[in-house]
Amino acid sequence: MAIVVVVSQPIRMWLPGINRQPPALEAKLALDTEVRVASMAKGGRVRMVLIRSGRTAWDEDARLQGQADLPLTDKGKENLRALAMSLHVAGVHFGSIFCAPDEGSVRSAKLISKAAGGRVRLNEGLTDPHLGLWEGKRFSDLKEQNPKTMRQWREDPTVVRPPSGEAIADARLRIIDAAAKIVDRPLRKAVAIVVRPLAFGVLRSVLDDLPPETITAPMGQDDTSVLDRMVTSAVLRSRRELVRKELAKVDG
User: Fold this and answer.
1) pLDDT tens string 193-235
2) pTM of the model
3) Which CATH class is domain 2-251?
4) Domain chopping of the chain, boundaries
5) SS (HEC) of the chain
């Protein structure tokens, strides 16, 4: 079993072939992929490669997108095609590709599917948080208008609810739950999950046990974010329950 998660924004992580490597190193990476897949088939561990999907016009203009449905830019498509080819060259093949239902994530998933295989499956639970009245606004403008709230957005977004939007704490639980249910499936091949940047931040914080501030940490502008991890369904379930208990305490 193996999982790839595709999201819409970059983090400086590396996936085989994204940056061109010497032939000897690429061969080693291809072999490592085979070893990982064999290991997962035996022990129930899942390879999760979290990837941010291609960029949209709002990404390039530093605007918060939330659940607004926008297409990829030409640069976003170019980055995704390069990623897809690198996966193909490294010998990665997917059985299924799960993605958020927005146009950018679906398009990203299909670009990867063309090169690395896998049936594209839409998953509502992987959708980025609904940012309400913030959607389409530049972070710099919001920071000037609401300095305290936007400081919380950077330091601990789980205590923030955008006006007319979804509480980030609720969205975090929803996204983790969706990923946990995917990993619970009887997977036989690699799987991709394509999501937007905030969903990427949520899953990254869970997989690497990072503080909430990393959910909204700024990401780079020039490539596709990738996170490659080996996980088990038990780990994701336990972290999902931990987040659920934290949320219950706040609501109580």
Assistant:
1) 899 999 999 999 998 899 999 999 876 544 458 787 877 888 8
2) 0.82
3) alpha beta
4) 2-251
5) CEEEEEECCCCCCCCCCCCCCCHHHHHHHHHHHHHHHHHHHHHCCEEEEEEECCCEHHHHCCECCCCCCCCECHHHHHHHHHHHHHHHHCCCCEEEEEECCCHHHHHHHHHHHHHHCCEEEECHHHCCCCCHHHCCCEHHHHHHHCHHHHHHHHHCHHHCCCCCCCCHHHHHHHHHHHHHHHHCCCCCCEEEEEECHHHHHHHHHHHCCCCHHHHHCCCCCCCCCEEEEEECHHHHHHHHHHHHHHHHHHHC
